[in-house]
Amino acid sequence: MITASHNSFVSLGDVMATIFGINLFALSGQLLVGLINGSFYALLSLGLAIIFGLLKIINFAQGAMYMLGAFFAWMALNYMGINYWAALILVPIAIGIIAILIERFLVRPIANEDHLYSLLLTFGIALILQGMFTHIYGSSGLPYSIPDELKGGTKLPFMYLPNYRAWIIVISLIVCGSTWWVIEKTKLGAYLRAGTENPQLMQGFGINVPLITTLTFGFGVGLAGFAGVLAAPVYSVSPEMGSNILIVVFAIVVIGGMGSIGGAILTGLLMGVVEGLTKFFYPEASTTVIFLFMVIVLLIKPAGLFGKEA
Amino acid sequence: MKINKLYLFLIALALVAPTFIYPVFLMKVLCFALFACAFNLLLGFVGLLSFGHAVFLGTGGYVTGYLMIETGISPELGVLAGTAAAAVIGAVYGKLAVKREGIYFAMVTLALAQLAFFFYLQAPFTGGEDGLQGVPRGSLFGIIDLSDNSAMYYFVLAIFLFGFWLVHRTIHSPFGQILKAIRENEPRAISLGYNVNDYKWAAFVISSALAGMAGSTKTLVFQLASLTDVHWHMSGEVVLMTLLGGMGTIFGPVVGAGVVVTIQNYMSGGELGNYIHIIMGVIFIVCVLAFRSGIVGEFQKLMKKNFG
């Protein structure tokens, strides 16, 4: 595009595409990639924040569960002929059930120990899952094609918007938004928030706290599975996909603080956009920019942008 | 007195060990044992779980490797420089990390380590994916040629014993007592007037320097510094060694490192290599659920019950 502007036969579109020497096509393209990454960051950090609220633990297997979601979608299609749309519903449920079993039989026995143990436990689970899938499928990625209904794209004034990418952003916003609404505005959400504040008191009111805790864990991990299915057509399905994104999400969680559900979603999206912008203006720093952002937040506001604790 | 006899016996054992065990394997164990001892100083004695300790191991390795290749300085100076570099990064990272506690501390250290990982991946002096290969071992003080494995072994042993002694000294000093007080009851330590964050930071710097020393030594032994040493897997491995051996015990990390390195060596050859991460994951889960004191911790409990 930049070379085209030196040509004497410049079309109107090309003139519009380059303002102040900035290639708007490339910029909006990177912004879109940023928003998509941000959608995944938001879904994953939302899951982590929900689980942290009630259980006070960090699920190190969240990335592995995201990877598992993508693999389940791939396996469902290739072994059972279950298509994308069914997988989008069924896989998160399956992952949620696995998570419920993990909570019930592995996490709960050590619920009263130091929370670092549950971090190490879920780290072990992540290692096993990643090791298993590397062993079976190798470390190179598997392809998963975009569903027919979402193939193609739309031409916008400054960019070409592939339909599937638009779908990722819309559906993650809907899922994150409705999760936020349920937690902040409904009676079920009120139980959840009360359980976060004072589980003993809530148990005293006759509410089954252990059940709510288990279901919350299932839902939070199920979100990661959902993100995994959503990611399968855009990133290649590989055993490494979970661990790479999880460490970034950890930095995002430190930046946003886990005190607020809305904060977790917003920080996720925002960091995706920051990453996208960096990819455009200074690509060498695109892998590190979120970590650098975390350093700055730690220096200025150690509790995190939305953090409550001192 | 009894404990001194034990130490003397173990040192004597380490001195004669290379006559019946392959020295490179022993050196690998000693390097990881030092790394785990450094890590255990934080986790076991201050209660801080650093999930990014690989960055110090890797930094030590890269700095030593680069200097040995480019300037040809003698190995003792190479190790010293690697250790110093790791200490400097530890000082910066520690300042940032102690701002948060518990689970957040683990996440911050992991994220900072990943920052360094991506930096080393792109930096011109690390050799990227290939790493620094063919690092010369050089001659110790310009006299003793270290390309001979048994000479190298005694050099590594000396470094390990120094590091082990330093950790031991730190733990049993008044400074170490305050660290333990912070681990047991941080609010009380604050109310007694201790600036808890400064103590945590100091422990973090000592730990990262020793981890760097382990990395420098490891680079000399294998004549290689690579991205493997800064990867988060490595950070996970040192957690596993310490947990398995027994965190908060003096010998636990050494035993844990010995067991993990033995498993890795045994498995890396054949088909079993694929299972290494699965097995490490299983060990993690078993340790957390049923074996939290680790090998040395359980052994001490057993001794106390039967003979104590």
TrEMBL record, chain B:
The keyword Transmembrane appears for this protein: yes
Location (main, coarse): membrane
TM segment ranges: 6-25, 32-57, 77-96, 103-121, 151-167, 238-263, 275-295
Record InterPro entries: ABC_transp_permease (IPR001851), LivM-like (IPR043428)
UniProt keyword Hydrolase present: no
Location of the protein in the cell: Cell inner membrane
Single GO molecular function: branched-chain amino acid transmembrane transporter activity
Membrane topology designation: Multi-pass membrane protein
Protein name: Branched-chain amino acid ABC transporter permease
Pfam assignment, any one: BPD_transp_2
GO CC terms in record: plasma membrane
Keyword annotations of the record: Cell membrane, Membrane, Transmembrane, Transmembrane helix
